[in-house]
Amino acid sequence: MGDPLTQALFCQSEVGVERGIRCLSKVFQKQQVKMLHALKALPSKANFFELSRFDFVVDEDLNVFLMEANMSPNLSSGHFAQNQILYEQVLFNIFSLVGIASAFTKDIREQSQEYNNARKFLAPDQSIYSFAHECSRCSPCDAMMECQLCASCMAPATLSFLRATSIEHSSKQDMKMLNFDEKQKPLTKEDHLLRLWRRVKCKHEQSWC
Known about the structure:
Number of domains: 2
Strand order of the largest sheet: 1-2
Mean pLDDT: 82
Pfam family, one: TTL
Family: Belongs to the tubulin--tyrosine ligase family.
Distance between the termini: 28 Å
C-alpha cells in the first residue's frame, strides 16, 4: 500500500481492515499444527513471543492479498523517518502486551511482586470463572466441556492460562486478538476451553469479541 490514497481508503474502510484481519487469521490457523510442534522443543509450555511483519497488496476494490511475511522485522526508522511514530506505537503496544511496559510505577511493580497474589488483583478469580448457570449440572465435572470453566471444576493449569489471557487482554492497548474459523475443530483442549471462555466474555463485553 505505497500509494497514500490507497492507504487512507484502506484504513477508513471496515471491509478492508476486516479482510486483512481474516487473512492473518487464516495464516496462523494453517500454521498452528507446525507451531504446536515447535513448542514441544521448548522447556516452557506457556505463551511465547515472536514479532512478525506481513506485507499486503490491496487492489482498487480493497481486496487483500498477502505478499510476504517477515520474522523479526527491522523496526529502524533510519531509512524512512515517516514510520518512526508507527514503530514506536508498535513497540509500546507489544511491550505492554507481554508485560515489559506497565501502567504501574517501578516501585508499585516491585511491591506487588513481594506477595503471592500479585496477579490476582489484575485478574481476580471471580472474573475468570464462568458458566455459573450451567455449573449446577456439572456433576461429575467431565459432564460437559463447559464444566471445566466452573469454579468447582477448573483445574489450576486452566485457571493460570485464563488469568494470563485476561491480563493480556487488559494490557493489549491497540493490539487485537485474532479469531479463528469457528468451523474448524480446536486442536487442543486449551484451544477449546479458550474458545468457549471468550464466547462467554464476548456476550458481556464487546472488546472480547
